[in-house]
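Intended use. Records like the one below are meant for learning the mapping from a protein sequence to its folded structure. Do not use them to infer anything beyond what is encoded.
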Amino acid sequence: MALRAVLFDLDGTLLDTLNDIAGAMNLVLARRGLKQHPLPAYRNFVGDGAEMLVRRTLQHENPSDAMVRQCIADFKAAYTETWNICTKPYPGITGLLDLLAEKEIPAAVLSNKPHEFTVRCVETFLPRWHFCAVLGEHPGRPCKPDPAGALEAARLLHTAPQEICYLGDTNTDMQTAISAGMLPVGVRWGFRPASELLAAGARHLIEAPAELLALLG
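Structure written out for the chain above:
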């Protein structure tokens, strides 16, 4: 079936946010006198929501649930200080969005980043383009890889799931696409290696954003 719409992951796919996420989380750890982590470690910490980010950074501390909840709140507060310092679109993303707009191919964003930050990042760093939906982590919306958010995006795109290409950079994204009945496409410029994407079921891997156009025909 022909593809008629694109659903994007945000962190590691549209935007390079790693420095700002790591900066916020390391600030939380430093304030608690805990070990901070080098930037590359955050490639494996991010992607599954704020709670999993906190649990992964605290994995050697045997944290209580109460400590995790407090660190999530502290991370969200710290991220308000760091969210826009280094974040920027990946090379080629703005050109891809221009081409999608020119061809009238609708697009949406689905992220495990807290919803308020997802919206803020899209509005700030990708203000020129219209997205039919911008969905982040929300109490009423299960995190990926649950397909609920992807299926909600499909409804807002007015497009059948099997006609949607889901573009992401983690195993979570590929699992989400498969569960929702979408085409899973992995990006090579993001946070995780190709081997992870392929093992999770990626049907295609692309090296640069413009390569997506060939899949869309």
